[in-house]
């Protein structure tokens, strides 16, 4: 299958504040990610990696430059259009699971489809399929406080993929998990990527990055390595 570009950033910058308090979080970033890639974004705290994730996730707008998502320049779209794109093209997984405590696993996964105007009967069918995909077909009626941390993250992943996104974004998705559960979650990300979903993970954990196939390394708002092999982590000098 021929790859196509799913994300293209052109001279993308993000500046906060003005004058002496100005902070340049991203400085003229140029980055291309192809459909079906599996990438890790790494760098020290304050390097710009989380700001980049916010840009890619249409959670914030750049100060200047262009961001093409699936061929559309989304950099300057209004809030309503950005929300629509987030719901239909992007899936999000965070370190804290952000599940609604009063809802069951099935209901939590169904929720994004409400905003996407998916018919009620299809919502349940797709949510059930997504939970089975992450190995939780037997936990449909459990609420978050009846699930382990790893199971809650699986529910969050099912919720992220239920609208069939073109890109799955994960921000420190294993930060609250032990090493065994981390590997289980990373296995799920690997399976989703193998099915064709583009997966981008922000992480500070080398073991997590080594599960991916490409590492983008940030320093001071700039990319210092755009195509680092995960196998090279620890063997090359990364600032």
From TrEMBL:
<protein>
    <submittedName>
        <fullName>ABC transporter</fullName>
    </submittedName>
</protein>
<dbReference type="GO" id="GO:0098796">
    <property type="term" value="C:membrane protein complex"/>
</dbReference>
<keyword id="KW-0067">ATP-binding</keyword>
<keyword id="KW-0813">Transport</keyword>
<dbReference type="InterPro" id="IPR003593">
    <property type="entry name" value="AAA+_ATPase"/>
</dbReference>
<dbReference type="InterPro" id="IPR027417">
    <property type="entry name" value="P-loop_NTPase"/>
</dbReference>
<dbReference type="InterPro" id="IPR015854">
    <property type="entry name" value="ABC_transpr_LolD-like"/>
</dbReference>
<dbReference type="GO" id="GO:0005886">
    <property type="term" value="C:plasma membrane"/>
</dbReference>
<dbReference type="Pfam" id="PF00005">
    <property type="entry name" value="ABC_tran"/>
</dbReference>
<dbReference type="InterPro" id="IPR003439">
    <property type="entry name" value="ABC_transporter-like_ATP-bd"/>
</dbReference>
<dbReference type="GO" id="GO:0005524">
    <property type="term" value="F:ATP binding"/>
</dbReference>
<feature type="domain" description="ABC transporter">
    <location>
        <begin position="7"/>
        <end position="236"/>
    </location>
</feature>
<dbReference type="GO" id="GO:0022857">
    <property type="term" value="F:transmembrane transporter activity"/>
</dbReference>
<keyword id="KW-0547">Nucleotide-binding</keyword>
<dbReference type="InterPro" id="IPR017871">
    <property type="entry name" value="ABC_transporter-like_CS"/>
</dbReference>
<dbReference type="GO" id="GO:0016887">
    <property type="term" value="F:ATP hydrolysis activity"/>
</dbReference>
<dbReference type="InterPro" id="IPR017911">
    <property type="entry name" value="MacB-like_ATP-bd"/>
</dbReference>
């Amino acid at each position: 299958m021929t790859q196509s570009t799913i994300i293209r950033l052109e001279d993308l910058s993000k500046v906060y504040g003005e004058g002496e308090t100005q902070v340049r979080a991203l400085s003229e970033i140029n980055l291309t990610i192809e459909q079906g890639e599996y990438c890790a974004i790494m760098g020290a705290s304050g390097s710009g990696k989380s700001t980049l994730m916010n840009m890619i996730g249409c959670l914030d707008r750049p100060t200047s430059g262009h961001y093409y998502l699936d061929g559309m320049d989304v950099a300057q779209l209004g809030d309503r259009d950005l929300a629509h794109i987030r719901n239909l093209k992007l899936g999000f997984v965070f370190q804290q699971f952000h599940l609604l405590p009063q809802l069951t696993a099935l209901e939590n996964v169904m929720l994004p489809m409400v905003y996407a105007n998916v018919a009620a009967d299809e919502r349940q069918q797709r949510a059930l399929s997504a939970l089975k995909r992450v190995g939780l077909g037997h936990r449909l009626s459990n609420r978050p406080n009846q699930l382990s941390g790893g199971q809650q993250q699986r529910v969050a992943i099912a919720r992220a993929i239920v609208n069939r996104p073109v890109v799955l974004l994960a921000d420190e998705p294993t930060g609250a998990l032990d090493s065994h559960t981390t590997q289980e979650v990373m296995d799920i990300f690997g399976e989703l990527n193998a099915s064709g979903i583009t997966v981008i993970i922000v992480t500070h954990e080398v073991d997590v990055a080594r599960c991916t196939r490409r590492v983008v390394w940030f320093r001071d708002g700039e990319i210092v390595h755009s195509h680092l092999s995960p196998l090279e982590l620890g063997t090359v000098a990364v600032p």
